[in-house]
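Reopening this one. Same input as before:
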Amino acid sequence: MSAGQYGPPQPIFEPRLFGGGSHVPLIAPWLQPHERLLGIVAVKLSDLIRRPLPRELRPGKQWTGTLGAVQGAAEAAASAADAVEFLDFGVTRRLRRILRGAGLTGGWQSMAGQFAVAVRTGPDTSSTYDNERALMVFTDRRILLMCTVSTKKVPLFGKVPPGTPLREARRLGEILPGQLRSVVIRHTSLSERVDLHFADGSLVAVEATKEQARALEALSRGIVPPPRG
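Same output, byte for byte:
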């Protein structure tokens, strides 16, 4: 199916795709029939939010028997490493919070927390649970959290056959209508912070350039920004 079947024929607001081209053909297969694409915004989780994702929040397969014992030992060693990392990062994060405010409120089970979990988990469960970037894809029905990944390596010699896709989109999560209450731009000389306020009162801080932040704020209010020049 072509991208034109899913979205408007005119260009939409979107960030520049690494290597050139448009995100629209990559996003199109993830849209529902007759769902209209309004805009795509690139965001990054604030450095105020813990990284990597706490181990108890990481999805994964549970093993039994011998494999379970091996996994348990590995989990114990990883948890100890996490504790050291969290202690070190926690001190830095507390200092940052004093100066810049909390990066996440409401806890991991809140709407904001689930947003952070979806982004941190990344495009697949074999990741390090330390992903920080996502695309917020606004449609007339919902907000998809997406990312793009390489599909295959570009050969060192020779040319890539015409029409060969070098990137594909992966779905990280979804924000349902009414869940995102407002977007507040809090840029300073030291930070490109943007706060996402959710309907349950929770908040998550992301970073976005001035152009992306303005588009994000507009899209959150149902206003479609003009495509980038």
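So the earlier flakiness isn't reproducible anymore. For the record, Residues 61-88 have pLDDT under 50 and may be disordered.
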